[in-house]
Amino acid sequence: MDNEVSAGIVTTTVVGRLALGITLLAFGVGLTGVIDGVRASDAVNVAHYVGGVALFLVGLLALRDNAGSGVAYVALGALWFTWAVSGASSANATGLFLLLFALVALTLTLAGGDTLGQIVHGLLFLAMVVLAVAAFADSSALAKVAGWVAVVSGAVAWYAATAALAHWPTAVPGRAAGRGVTATG
What we know:
The chain is mainly alpha-helical and 185 residues long. Helices cover 77% and strands 0% of the residues. It has 6 helices and no strands. It is globular.
């Protein structure tokens, strides 16, 4: 029974991170303008179906075995879905929505979990804050910066999912515990 529960947690975590990673990569690349003719609005379908619907459903499945991941994926799925279907609105309304999105990402960052998950959510928080400021200030330069942060967050999410499947390292090297502490071995 423990193997089944463990497999369920790993499966929903991997699928959730892949969905979040793909959505962030598409959204971020669109914001950066690095590919000619690709804009953030081109990521609407990805955000709607992969970031919204799929992530929300994965979250519902994860709630049974891992409440933390389930809540995270449900909340992020609902926010991506809302962004995708919201259409055009004022810059201030967009900025407010992005700040609310950032608050959810900050909560997920502070909630703990594994290091890669915290990095993904922390970078998502930073991207949404910078994008909110860009919306309020009508700054395309800040929007590009937010796009690059979203791309990095998406790449970390993709790596975390792929690492779990490919058995790559997922531990982030840390420092020794305090002054005078030396590593052994």
